[in-house]
Amino acid sequence: MVRTLVSMTRHHPGDFRANLRSPEPRAAVETFLDVFSRSSLTWDDLAFVRDRTTLPIILKGIQRPEDAERAVASGADGIVVSNHGGRQIDGAIGALDTLPGIVRQVDGRVPVLFDSGIRTGSDILIALALGATAVLIGRPWVYGLALAGTAGAETVLRNLLAELDIALGLSGHASLAELGSGSVARDQTLHGF
Ligand SMILES: Cc1cc2nc3c(=O)[nH]c(=O)nc-3n(C[C@H](O)[C@H](O)[C@H](O)COP(=O)(O)O)c2cc1C
User: Fold this and answer.
1) Model's pTM, two decimal places?
2) Domain count of the chain?
3) pLDDT by residue (tens digit) across 2-37?
4) Which of 61, 81, 110, 121 shows its CA 20 to 30 Å from the CA of 16?
5) Residues 63/98, Cβ–Cβ less than 8 Å
6) Ligand 1 atom 13 nearest Cα
7) What would you report as the CA-atom Rg of the chain, rounded to the nearest whole angstrom?
């Protein structure tokens, strides 16, 4: 089943049928790597793209301060701290846990956007307090879209903004500008916070 699903994500019906007919089924992990990894891509490719466009380049999926540094050094105009939906590997570090270290490393040189699990206004507040320049929403607005089309997506976003207002007020902040690492508390023994 895994092999079938992965094959379908390639949008190559021919490959899909060929895989089904294969007398030697490939290991799921081998197929996964074949589909999702491009071992030929390196950081030099980012510099190559940078040299050829004046469009902003925002690099998504950053999880380590070292990679954030390389992204900035390679000319990225911003980064997105993200765990890609957390569905690629069990036990991966939570994106929020990586945020403070990356924010420290980037030190304001480029915007640090954040996604992964933003579901409520409090989630937005926490990410901004930990230094995100802004947050991105992945699945929630898609759920709204599925339920009620454009109006559903709008409702999801309006609810998030309303919740953010309430969370700000209830936590004693008059505006987003007042948010900082002192706005949130956390077990100091974890992840070097
Ligand atoms: C169906 C689906 C496909 C995705 N495909 C990609 C992808 O190709 N590249 C990527 O960087 N992130 C991908 N993501 C991750 C999202 O861009 C986003 O980082 C993630 O869903 C976390 O945000 P959320 O928790 O608000 O959904 C995908 C997410 C979903 C649900």
Assistant:
1) 0.81
2) 2
3) 333 333 333 444 454 455 555 566 777 777 777 777
4) 61
5) yes
6) 84
7) 20
